[in-house]
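Quick one, probably user error.
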């Protein structure tokens, strides 16, 4: 099983959505986690509502520091994915085992004040992450870091467009 950590600054929105999607879509091939450099303390309620509206579990998530995954007792990571520009630009901890890295920058839906616009932004972010994750899984031909790096490189070259999928 591949261990993938998804990072964002607050660990309340994009990284939570990606964690849920990777775990659901990975179907036992992937164990995903999420964390942030400056966690907000709790997942964004619209992130949880978006998961629930897409028939994914919306409980058990928490906003946590990426420091938890740099400890010696943390799961060994095969990949680290950043989903926001600020997390990609930050100096990340040194991850044990030197995991593969990828950046999937997306606008922050949690930064939108208007409720209806924010709800739509969360839905758009969910679809964009879903499309990227499905492309990754489709390109993944093995269960090791070399296969992950190859899949990340392959999908980087594609123009990934979100679309609806049944879960």
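Nope, works fine. Designed sequence:
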């Amino acid at each position: 099983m591949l261990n993938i950590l998804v990072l964002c600054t607050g660990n309340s929105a994009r990284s939570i959505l990606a964690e849920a999607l990777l775990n659901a879509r990975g179907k036992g091939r992937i164990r995903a986690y999420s964390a942030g450099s400056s966690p907000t303390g709790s997942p964004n309620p619209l992130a949880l509502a978006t998961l629930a509206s897409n028939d994914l579990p919306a409980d058990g998530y928490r906003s946590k520091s990426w420091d938890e995954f740099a400890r010696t007792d943390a799961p060994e990571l095969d990949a680290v994915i950043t989903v926001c520009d600020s997390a990609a630009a930050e100096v990340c901890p040194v991850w044990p085992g030197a995991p593969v890295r990828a950046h999937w920058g997306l606008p922050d839906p949690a930064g939108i004040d208007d409720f209806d616009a924010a709800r739509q932004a969360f839905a758009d972010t969910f679809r964009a992450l879903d499309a990227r994750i499905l492309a990754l899984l489709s390109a993944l031909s093995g269960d090791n870091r070399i296969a992950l790096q190859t899949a990340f490189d392959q999908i980087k070259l594609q123009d990934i467009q979100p679309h609806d999928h049944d879960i």
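The first strand starts at residue 2 and ends at 8.
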